[in-house]
Amino acid sequence: MTSTPVGPPRLVGKVLREAREVASGAGYDVVTHDASEKNAGQWDADGWKVCFQTAAGQRGGERPVLDLGVVRVDAPCPGADGEEIPWPSMPGVAGTDFFEAEEMLEAVGVRKVRPESVYTDVTLPADPSTWRVCFQEPAPGRRIENPQYATAYLKLAPPDAGCPDAPYARLRPEPTS
User: What is the pLDDT of residues 128-175, one digit of tens each?
Assistant: First the structure.
């Protein structure tokens, strides 16, 4: 005996494994496809989430089928099925203090921030929150794919010193004889 569906369940936002279970329990079969432009296979049902859902007819006159457009769970959904994933861009943090730079990076999902002194002869303190960012990598505006795994490298100057023209400069040049 097959169950008669009362209407398709709402699956958008669910992890693929749960979406399949809910659909099956409601009397639907499921087919999936990568909702981004990449067409990747969905071999790990716990690693994908549903972004789009459409009716896909019936299989051999049996249960109705739902076609689910999915992306990796850590990715944002594209604006439309088949479009590029809208990864965030690296904010420009040069000129801000380290504390503010960390907040700006966290806002776009960057969790790892590596500060270091822009000057080779100045040691970074244990708490560089008031130091100014002079240089950054990745560059501002660069697309950050999977920001939760990205690392931002920031070159900092002490509050009482300006930024040099290039990283790895000396604040106090060695005396010439």
Answer: 999 999 999 999 999 999 999 999 999 999 999 999 999 999 998 877
Minimum mean pLDDT among 58-62, 90-94, 123-127: which range?
58-62
Query: How do residues 33-77 score in pLDDT, each as one tens digit?
Result: 999 999 899 889 999 999 999 998 876 668 899 999 999 999 999
DSSP sequence for the chain = -PPPPSSPPP-TTSBHHHHHHHHHHTT-EEEEEESSSS------GGGEEEEEEEEEEESTTSSEEEEEEEEETTSPPPSSTTSPP-PPBPP--TTSBHHHHHHHHHHTT--EEEEEESBTTSPPPS--TTSEEEEEESPTT-B-SSGGG-EEEEEEE-TTS---SSSSB-SSPPPP-
Q: Are β-strands 48-58 and 64-72 bridged in parallel, bridged antiparallel, or unpaired?
A: antiparallel
Q: Tokens 């990715």 — which residue?
A: 75
